[in-house]
Each structure stands twice: as C-alpha cells, then as structure tokens.
What does this fold into?
Amino acid sequence: MEITDMHVHIYPDHLAQRVITNRSVLCYEFASDATLTGTLSKMKEWGIAHAIAASVATRPQTQDAVNAFALRAQCKRIRFMGSVHPYADRIRETLLQIKDSPLAGVKFHAHEQQYLLDEPLAMKAYEECARLELPILLHAGPDSSYPGADNASYERVAHVAGRFAGSKIIFAHFGINGHYDLLDERLLGKDVYLDTSMCHRLADDQVTDIIHAHGAHRVLFGSDCPFANAQAAAQRIQALPLDQEQKEDILHKNAHRLFGVGG
It folds into this structure.
C-alpha cells in the first residue's frame, strides 16, 4: 500500500541539530536527524513513498527565508509547504507567490508564531488562503514546548473549523493533540480535514471512533517526524479495525487528491 506522510518537519542542515538539542529537554525521542538527507533515508527505510514537509515562519521577518528554503529543498518524494506569519507585511503577495510555485500549501503554528489561532489577523490570512484554494495546515491543541498556552485551544479550533468548513483546511493532531474528551460536533463531521500526527497519545479505540465519526475521506496520515516514527505510526493505522478503502484513503489517496502527490 502506498503511504504518504503529510506532516513532517525538515530544517536546513545548520538548524536541524539546534532544533533537536532544544527539543531534547522535552524528552522527545527523535526518529530522524531532521535534515532533508536524513529524512529521505528514513523514508526509504520505513517504506514511505511521499511526504509533505511543513515549514513555519516563526517571525514575520523570516517569512521570505523560510519559503526560499522550502523551494530549494523540494524534491521528487518530498513537497514542502510554505508559510506566512499573520503579522507580516505583504501576506497576500506572498500567498500569490506560493500559489504560483511548486509549494504544497501553507503551514501555520499559533504557538511557534506567537499568535492566537482565531484572532482577526489570522482569520484574514486563512481567508486569503481559502480564496486562492491553497491547502492550509494548522497546528491544533496544546504544545508541550509552550505549557499552559491556549493559542490553539479546542475552542479556537472549533471557531476556525466553523468559519472555514469547505475549504482545504487541515487541523493537525486530530484537532486536539491528545485531548479526546474535548471533541464534539463543532469539529467532528465538519467539512475539514484532520491529520493523525501524534495520535499515539490516543487509545486505538479513540482513534477508530474519531475516524468513523469524521469520515475516513477527511483524515490524512501524518507522523510529525522527526518527533515521531512514521513507520510505527503507519503500522498503527494499518492495524485499526477499518476497511481497506478507509485505510487507503487515510494513508495515501486523500493526500493525492489534496496535494497531487503520487499516483
């Protein structure tokens, strides 16, 4: 079965080790060295055919450099998403450049970019992405690097989902990042996408319940590599009590339809 991991992180070689060192204090067990070469090697080892790499402009002034790296690093097996910062100038111009480039869409991370997921400037940026029919990947839920912060809380996720249902918007980590008890009809069943990254924080029956409630045609496989092992994550999806069509949709076909990767 062809597998596309639509949520990986790859950094320039000179930054990758710094990222791993900084995150090591949070007890992450890294599955790759976070470089392009290292990730490609792991993908071959794990049987991952294609990947979407999520780039994040953590500050407004890094937006151009982040997107330039994403364009340079594109290769046959990995497509990169670009990024805009909600507080940056020239957002519309940058989104038009992303639309006209090989980049796969736009990644936002409310914690790392230090904004609130549903604040007006962010919603304006999402509106422009939706108008251009660009896929949007949003970090959703808490982040252990920012304890106690509610930048991407479930209330904010639900607000954004209600506003942008029907667009190409993807909420990472099933929209909850491990907090199964928060899920309700404000997200489940909406015409938005969820990715499976970091779903090891949920029990198998919880993951299965989410997929059945939301619809496998709106769920995308993602690992969050290097912060999780994509092979183990894919094997877990394959072992769930889902039919073959549902597994194929999650592991590859939905990503093919959304991003055009693979066959």
